[in-house]
Amino acid sequence: MKRLAVLIIAVGFLAGISLSHSLAGHGPHGPNGPPPKVKVCHVDEVEIDPDTGEEVVVAAHVLELPEPAAQAHLDHGDELLEDLSLAHGADCTSQYQED
Question: Is residue 61 predicted with pLDDT exceeding 70?
Answer without folding.
Answer: yes
